[in-house]
Structure to design on (423 residues):
């Protein structure tokens, strides 16, 4: 059995501009930014939204449909802000701003034998033309989106990334098939920490494999950016603060994308997997999980990582599930004894039965076990997990097991799929 769901994916294409007016793309983006800022300014001046819409649209030096896109984007930002009481007030943009366009209105694509040509209406009556560059897989997806009744091509952003013009096109599959989690055979427990992610694959018959993926960059970079921002605030350099914040957001965003790709890729090697996370809502509602939970919640953008993973998994037909996160770091998988003193840093040792493990792998194991239980499957004995493999995110190197901080490890090292694939 499977469920269907609408899923949207963004495909990134470098542009090979062949008309002699590439600079229009930059001008178009400046105009989009002006339009966005103008909506905010008029709103803060107390204008009625209907009047803002009419005035800004008429004065915009953009294709009408594109102006509408940008105005809607500004209204969306304002709505989000008003819905969330005073949090993250939208402010004027100074940095790069993408031009957002609707398919066949602001931009169009033309499929030829080997190539796909684009036409972007950067300004009214002014088209920028050329070819998009991409892989065969990307072109196939685009074609599918134009030909298949259940698919469509949506909004695209044109932006300049490291000096190169890019078109980011969204394609949606309205009826993507995702396996029913009740049919899952392998539960992938995911334990997210400030510097690593523990993954463990469990089935009714035991532990299939596990890995700990380290991602120290997210934590250190966020700390660095935090320090920079504080320093700027203390000397009153607030003008660049937004830029730094955007840079930080972009960095963390890229890291989380890579990490989520690693996680999904690892999960895919198992039979009918379901990915299981801790339920964030429960984590936030509880005041009793102690300093470790608080540190985790503040150091990794959990919700974002979970969303990325669930989304990428869904594209591959893999479902996700959430479990109660209570004491996942303190509970023994062998005897169930739960106490803070079971854990010291990265080391877990049960004070009651003596079971030992890498603390974050153990947490992933427990999350996997709770996943099995939630899906009404039998939970096997989990007291002899395989050797913990620890590897770094991105570089894909698998470190030898003797780097392992756990002194006694049992079982055999299995050769899972290692290395990171960028797609
Ligand atoms: Zn125990």
């Amino acid at each position: 059995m499977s469920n269907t769901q609408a899923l949207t994916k963004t495909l990134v294409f470098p542009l090979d501009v062949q008309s002699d007016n590439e600079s229009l793309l930059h001008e178009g983006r400046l105009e989009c930014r002006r339009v966005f800022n103008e909506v905010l300014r008029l709103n803060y001046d107390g204008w009625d939204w209907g009047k803002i819409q009419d005035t800004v649209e008429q004065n915009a030096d953009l294709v009408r449909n594109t102006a509408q896109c940008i105005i809607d984007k500004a209204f969306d930002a304002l709505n989000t802000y008003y819905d969330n009481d005073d949090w993250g007030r939208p402010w004027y943009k100074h940095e790069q701003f993408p031009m957002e366009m609707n398919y066949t209105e602001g931009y169009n694509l033309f499929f030829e034998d080997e190539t796909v040509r684009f036409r972007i209406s950067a300004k009214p009556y002014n088209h920028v033309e050329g070819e998009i560059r991409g892989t065969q897989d990307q072109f196939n997806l685009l074609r599918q989106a134009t030909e298949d009744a259940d698919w469509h091509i949506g909004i695209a952003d044109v932006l300049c990334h490291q000096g190169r013009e890019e078109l980011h096109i969204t394609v949606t599959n309205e009826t993507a098939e995702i396996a029913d989690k009740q049919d899952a055979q392998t539960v992938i427990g995911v334990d997210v920490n400030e510097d690593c992610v523990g993954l463990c694959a469990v089935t009714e018959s035991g532990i299939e494999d596990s890995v700990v993926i380290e991602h120290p960059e997210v934590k250190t970079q966020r700390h660095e950016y935090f320090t920079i921002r504080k320093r700027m605030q203390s000397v009153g350099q607030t003008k660049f603060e937004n830029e730094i914040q955007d840079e930080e957001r972009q960095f963390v965003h890229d890291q989380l994308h890579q990490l989520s790709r690693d996680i999904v890729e690892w999960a895919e090697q198992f039979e009918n997997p379901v990915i299981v996370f801790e339920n964030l809502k429960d984590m936030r509602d509880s005041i009793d999980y102690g300093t470790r939970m608080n540190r985790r919640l503040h150091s990794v953008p959990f919700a974002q990582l979970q969303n990325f993973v669930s989304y990428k998994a869904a594209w591959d037909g893999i479902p996700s599930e959430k479990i109660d996160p209570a004491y996942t770091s303190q509970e023994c998988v062998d005897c169930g004894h739960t106490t803070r003193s079971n854990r010291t840093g990265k080391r877990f040792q049960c004070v009651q039965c003596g079971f030992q493990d890498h603390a974050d792998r153990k947490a992933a194991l427990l999350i996997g076990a709770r996943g099995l239980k939630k899906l009404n499957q039998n939970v096997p004995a989990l007291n002899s997990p395989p050797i913990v493999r620890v590897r770094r995110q991105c570089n894909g190197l698998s470190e030898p097991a003797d780097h392992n901080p756990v002194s006694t490890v049992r079982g055999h090292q299995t050769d899972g799929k290692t290395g990171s694939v960028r797609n």
Remarks:
- The domain at 181-408 is CATH 3.30.420.10 (Nucleotidyltransferase; domain 5).
- The longest strand covers residues 2-17.
